[in-house]
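mind reviewing this fold:
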Amino acid sequence: QALELGVPTMQPGEVSFFLAAFPYAYGRPGSREPDVPPEAPLLFEVTLLEVRDGPDPQPLPPAVRLRLGSQRRERGNFHFARSDFAAALRSYRLSLRALDGPTTAPPGPEEEEELREQRVKCLNNCAAAELKLGRPEEALAACEAALRISPDNGRALLRRGQLLAEQGRDAEAALVLKRALELDPANKV
């Protein structure tokens, strides 16, 4: 997170040193013991070589898209757990971009199913982050996008129903929540 916060403040050609307290580096657990022990501050030396507009998505094999999407979604989960919902949302959107990007070859049936599942997870996570940021319309749009991919996704149905109810759209909410309950009768929410 230190680099995500620091690099945008730099100019091309600039060399910067970022001293990151452990919450902005590898967190309380550290990483790659013994290289980065628990609660370790880190010093990063960064040279900004150039600034570009967002790169054109490069065609990638489906397995690489899945790996990148998963890594970015997990990074979003990391930010979400730390209540940095804006950073989480950025990571989830990057994950979706990786999952939806061009491929070097068509995915096989198993890869296509996994891509679909990853997209739905990311969209549900986007909805949760949007709610935390106080943007119910955007959260509802993310739920609806998830349901276009997976119409019987219980999490998206439940959240969509709750959002519709909050908007006073009670008849629609009742139908959606009834469907969520049919799919998961044990759900206590």
